[in-house]
Amino acid sequence: MSELILLVEDDPVLGPSLQQRLVLEGFSVVHATTLAAAREFLGKRVPSFVLSDIRLPDGSGADLLREVLSQHGAVPIVYMTAYGSVDQAVELVRDGARDYLAKPFNLDELVSRIQELLLRPLAPQLDDPFSTFGLSASMRGVRSMLDRLAGIDLPVLLIGETGTGKEIAARYLHAKNAAQSRPFEAVNCGQLSPELADSTLFGHEKGAFTSAHDRRIGVLESVGEGTLLLDEIGDTGPELQLKLLRVLQERQFRRLGATQDLAFKGRLVCATNRDLEEAVRDGVFREDLLFRINVVTIRIPPLRERLEEVAPLLTAFAANAAQRMGIAPKPATAAAVSAAEQHDWPGNVRELRNRVERAVALAGGAELTPFDLFPENTAHILQPASHASSGPTTAQPRSSLGFPSLAEVRDQAERTHILRALDETDGRLQDAAKLLGVSRTTLWERMRRHGIDRRVEG
User: What is the DSSP letter of 189?
Assistant: First the structure.
């Protein structure tokens, strides 16, 4: 059975063209032109992949992302965006989308990206999944604390910003436990709608409600004596908080529609990016539940507080991504590492991983440059010349020895040549592409890489 793609695009030319190409590639495609149509489809079926425009006639990409995550969890989502909406696309990637493509894009690259995302797991699969956990002094402290807690069955609360690695910490705690061969279950409470929460956590009996055609085992039961991570616990509503409190107090729960209680035998780990004490003061989180889950509280520091991890994480993610994609390794240049270490990483480790994986997939050269990691904002990396200028840039990145590498010289030469072609054609992309002997899409992508203003077409 072919993979099912939900395509959400209202452009009357681009939408059918994308649908036709994806069908030719062997995918099943449902084409929706509005957010309402996409919602209707999502209420009936689960797509394998979602490809969507960022701006829709009746909503936005953020609206669609919430719909997909709340109903179906971690379905890969890639957004198509115009040049002026790149910042919004980056925010969506930080919120859970897998990638974005700036229009116009190469259809072959799009198909390859879809295939790659469908084939790979969402988390990086390193030979040692914890080889990059605990590289800085602050994270070594976290790792040491988890080592001490591994054999002690106490609830643990992990706090920290989105993307810092709270789930990795929970998995590490589970792996260090003698019960590591038992299940590890992770539930994102922020993605659970009230209608699905009870069934997901507690399970239900056949006939418990209208659509309950079979018995369902909830995660409180399926985790057995393993570890249950309740991520984003601060986003739960008052009714679910009360039910979780009962589970922790009595170590029992009941499937929907059942008459007998079942024992909860697992270890509970909770995670949140919210200030739960403030939530208690605001009346949106139960104080008695907070007392139950924060027996041991561990703060996972943001990446900007552990910048010494950036270089080794970048190296590990790049090597892993290249291996999964079946391509030659693409090491980062010294300039790319320097740019990464100067970035404040608001999306933390998740943002770093997404940027590196995207760079490995799309980089035109054998190495990752600052432009590959930060395609949406190259001003702080290289001061771009006007498209009418043919002179070299004034701030070309240098190698660690202060001498330009071959890759940097090549990039500078290519940039200068593109500027000359644009000068010759008065900024007309189609004519410049013909002069350079490349396609318009290739020229557009090279201009993006080199920080050349793309709003030059006449």
Answer: G
- Residue 305, SS3 per DSSP: helix
In tens, the pLDDT along 241-256 reads 999 999 999 999 988 8
Inter-residue contact 283 to 238 (CB < 8 Å): no
Has residue 377 got a pLDDT over 70? no
φ, ψ dihedrals at 137, nearest 5° = -60, -45
DSSP 97: -
Exposure b/e, 69-108, CB count within 10 A at least 16 = b: bbbeeebbbbbbbeeebbebbbebbbbbbbbbbbeebbee
Give residues with Cβ within 8 angstroms of 212, minimum separation 6.
199, 204, 205, 206, 256, 257
Query: What is the Cα–Cα distance from 338 to 399, expressed in whole angstroms?
Result: 10
CA gap 343, 219 in Å, rounded: 38
Radius of gyration of the chain, Cα coordinates, nearest whole angstrom:
25
Confirm if 199 and 187 have CB atoms less than 8 A apart. Answer: no
Alpha helices in 223-283 (DSSP H): 238-250, 276-281
d(CA 438, CA 348): 37
Yes or no: say if 255 and 205 are a contact pair by the CB < 8 Å rule: yes
As a whole number of angstroms, the distance between CA 213 and CA 199 comes to 13
Beta-carbon neighbour count of residue 355 at 10 Å?
24
The rounded mean pLDDT for the chain is: 82
Q: What distance in Å separates the CA atoms of residue 404 and residue 409, rounded to the nearest whole number? A: 6
Cα–Cα dist 284/286, whole Å: 7
Cβ(80)–Cβ(54) under 8 Å?
Answer: yes
pLDDT in tens, 436-456: 877 776 777 678 777 776 544
> Is the pTM above the cut of 0.70?
no
- Contact in structure between 303 and 352 (CB atoms under 8 Å): yes
At 397, list the tokens.
Answer: 């990145």
d(CA 287, CA 280): 6
Q: Which helix (H) or strand (E) holds 288?
A: helix 287-293
In angstroms, the CA 57 to CA 35 distance is: 8
- Cβ neighbours of residue 214 closer than 8 Å, sequence gap 6 or more: 206
C-alpha distances out from residue 162 to 116, 276, 358, 402, Å: 25, 15, 20, 36
H/E element holding 362? helix 348-362
Cα of first residue to Cα of last residue in the chain, in angstroms, is 46
Tokens of 446: 């090279």
Tokens of residue 220, six digits:
């409180």
